[in-house]
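subagent[fold] <- orchestrator: predict structure for attached chain, return tokens only, no commentary.
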Amino acid sequence: MGHWFSRNILEPGKLPMLLALTSFVLTFLLTRTVTRLIRAGKGPFRNVSSGGLHIHHVVPGVVLTVLGGFGAVASGRHGFGAAAFAVVFGIGAGLVLDEFALILHLDDVYWSEEGRQSVEVVVLTAALVLLPLSGFSPLGVDDVTEEERQDRVGFLLTLALNFLFILVTLVKGKLRMALVGVFVPFVALVGAVRLARPGSWWWRHLYRRRHRARARGTVRAYRHDKRWTRVRRKVQDLIGGFQERVPGRGTGSS
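subagent[fold] -> orchestrator:
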């Protein structure tokens, strides 16, 4: 285990990324726990206010993210400074993305249906950061052999092809697959060859006269959503506590 950690984390300079991811996830989980306790009226925690103004935790999160980000850039990939600023950045990012829905909607939707977007973004972010930690590289660069790297034309064609798959997947309305496809090109390939989701750019412009494709796409999207939406909501409820109703109390976040 120690040899694997040294070879795959320390030597490539991935320790700051690992520390940032760890602090990011722990901060998010701790923040959700605190806000759930505040909502339930338990424990010593209370909302933070100044002069009657409710201070959301996205505010210190932005400060820590900026501080950690600039510090990490200045510190390089090795040494105590890089590790420390990575932790600061992870803490700030956890605080910010926990209120992603508030930033998106410019409204306090922390406990509402729209607030589920924060949990989804956090989970997706953690998964995407975990991929390069596990050895995946953007656009499948690691899948290219040394001989192909020396052949600039072939190398650029490989990158361009992978990017094309990602772009097609994106315009077909499959954002999650496109993001994962940045690190796992096969996922982008699957998303590119399958039918577009209803409402996507590809659906509106290229399926305009393809009634059979529109019908198949609608049925497939319905079956997919019916199968996975309930599972996704249960995970969001488990992590975010959206189903914890507290009569007589406000729904504001901390």
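orchestrator: received. Logging for downstream: Residues 68 and 88 are 5 Å apart (CA to CA). The first helix runs from residue 2 to 10.
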